[in-house]
Amino acid sequence: MKSTKIYQFLIPSLFLTFSSLGQCPKQNVVLSSQQQVNEFATVYKNCTAIYGNVTIGTAFGLTDIHDLSPMAGVRTIEGYLNISNNPGLSSLHGLEDLISVNGYLNIFNNDRLTTLDGLSGLVSVHGFLWIIHNENLISPKGLNGLTSINGSIEISDNPSLTSLEGLEQIDPGTIFPTQSYLLSPIIDVKIFENGNPSIPRPPNIDQYFENNNLVHRFQNMIHKSYVERAVETDMLYKGVAGLTDSVLAKTILREIAAIAQNSGQNDLIWESDLLSAFYQLNHAATPMTHRIEQMQAIADRAGREEKWHIQARALRFISIRYWHALQEYEKTFKTNHALAEVISKIDPEEFPDLAECYRTIGAAHYFFRDYREAIRFFRKGASIPQTPYNASYVTHCINNLGLSYQKLHIPDSSDYQFNQILLDSTQYAIEVWKGIASGNLGNNYYLRKEYDRAIPLLKRDVSTAESLNLWGLAAGSLIPLADIQLSYGRLTETEKLIQRATDYIRLSGESDRLRLLFPVISKWHSVMGNQKLASDYVDSTVHAIAVYNEKFNALKVLRAKLELSAQELRMKEIEKQKLLLQRNLIMAIVLIVFFFGMIFIKNFRTNLRRKRAIQELALINAQESLDHAQTRLGDLTRKIRENNQIIHRLKQNNDKSMDLEALEELQNATILTQEDWRHFKNLFQTVYPGFIDILKSRYSDLTSAELRCLCLEKLQLTNPEMAAAQGVSPKSINVTQYRIRKKLGLENQSELEQLVNSVI
Predict the structure, then answer these.
(1) Total-model pTM
(2) Class of domain 436-508
(3) Between residues 430 and 296, which one has the greater pLDDT?
(4) Looking at CB atoms within 10 Å, which of 135, 194, 460, 616 has the fewest?
(5) What are the DSSP calls for 213-269, one per residue?
(6) Domain 7-211, what fold?
């Protein structure tokens, strides 16, 4: 069977469990046999809505499913719908009532399907649409009612496909690439490797391509921050990397540069410059060292202007070129050192590429088996909050953390990292990475001889690796699987696994894996009675290990050279800093001597006299202000007391000839108005600075009326005097004092008076 893409393996390791009759299932549903399909109709009779994910098929292997009519009546699926690995399924009839799928729709490896007529009622898919590796599929006819997709489309590896009939109603405005960052590589609309390599595209799909050319993408970036346009930016760079026509590329880059200049946005001008340098780095005919110098110039200039996201990305591009194109590892580490310094200045929320930068740096250390240092960078990348843009990079860092702990023989920490990926149930969970983490965790169990736990995990990894064409990765899990089957005495199964591992090692060119495969082959021949071949493979194992160790020793020598070079670089940097410090110190001494010689002596006494005069004047003014405030506050207090005494005497004498109107006027004159209170507060704060602020800070729940009462207490006014000043009865003052004592936790009025006197 032809190698396929990653998407068919987005299947959870859950199995359908049936509950009460007549209810719709609220959990994920996995139907991996015709019997389970039939039981669904019996147990969930009249079900119209499934509240979890639905898988009709299996992650690996094949099913006997051939009839979906028991699914009739289901109208909505709240999760994804996965129809995979059903060689006997010739029709999707039974799903006609289905209207919406709130996750992705994946139709993979169903050899007898010719059309998708059974999905004629489907209107919306709130995720990706994948139609991959269906041997006899002629067209997606049957999706004619589908109008909305909140994701991307991939139709590939369908050798009989000659028509795209059925996709005409999809609105191109609903095709969004954002969530595709949960998988790699990025996809929008991909239609390739089908029966007709030039299938005519429906007008709506053509419109999508017209609206998503590179110039249009750049146009969409205007007035957006880098965070807001990170997805568009990444897709733009991938598009430029794929340009092979130099004339077309130059035209596009000129148009982009013009848009950047006309936008008036400095950040877009920088983006245009970086994009042009990126194209040159990938496609120019000049030597690679010259192209790197051009990119380095961009990085240096961006650093001087503190355009950190430009500088960081430029340095990462350089690092990748040194590593892959030139194998100049020493320069890679120097570039990575500079990159680490730059990204340490950037807030993760402002730079979505941060996790990928940490992964790049950590991977270099991992390659040279500096696992402790690799962990330091992978941990930084793994701790970054996930977004649709960086989820794959963060997960990659978590996986590599697990591998680093595995190499250091710290199994618990290694298991923990892989389980983080496997148990992730957030919106950023990436099923492909779950497959990879399964193999890594399975290998941990294999090393601990927990074979029953290892087998399903290793099988899942093999399936994922095969789907990605990662033959070396697949071989890595096939080898321990073969060894496990051999230990169980399953010789035929062992032979098949050995053959697949051998083929995959040859396809990948990763001959280092032979040192692990040869011992298994030797044991298999020994069990089969072929002692000569068993002995030969022992010798081959010794040779493979010797070759591997030779490479490892070469890496150690290279690593030593890199460390020596790094040490020399640090020494030069220290010497440079030392010379710079000496120069600055000499210049400072000269300036200090000049300053003190020419200015200090001349102006010292004048400045001193001026300061003293200013201080004396300030003291006089402050004292005068204080005296004035004390006098005015005393007058105000005295007025309140005197008026209150007069009112008290008049009321005591009970003089019937007393002018009541005059008495009322006197009382009103005693009450402080709002303006009086503002004036009173200014005078009070001058005489008793900080009194009110201290009370507020200590007792934040005091009201304005209670603070006024405490200020009058500070002036030692009696309750009747306070009542007269505020125009209330003495009883109200008593109530206010009671509330204050309760808030301050005081027993009696005497304690309150002591507290007031103790403040300032």
Answers:
(1) 0.57
(2) mainly alpha
(3) 296
(4) 616
(5) SHHHHHHTTTT--TTTTHHHHHHHHHHHHT---HHHHHHHHHHHHHHHHHHT-HHHH
(6) 24 nucleotide stem-loop, u2 snrnp hairpin iv. U2 a'; Chain A (3.80.20)
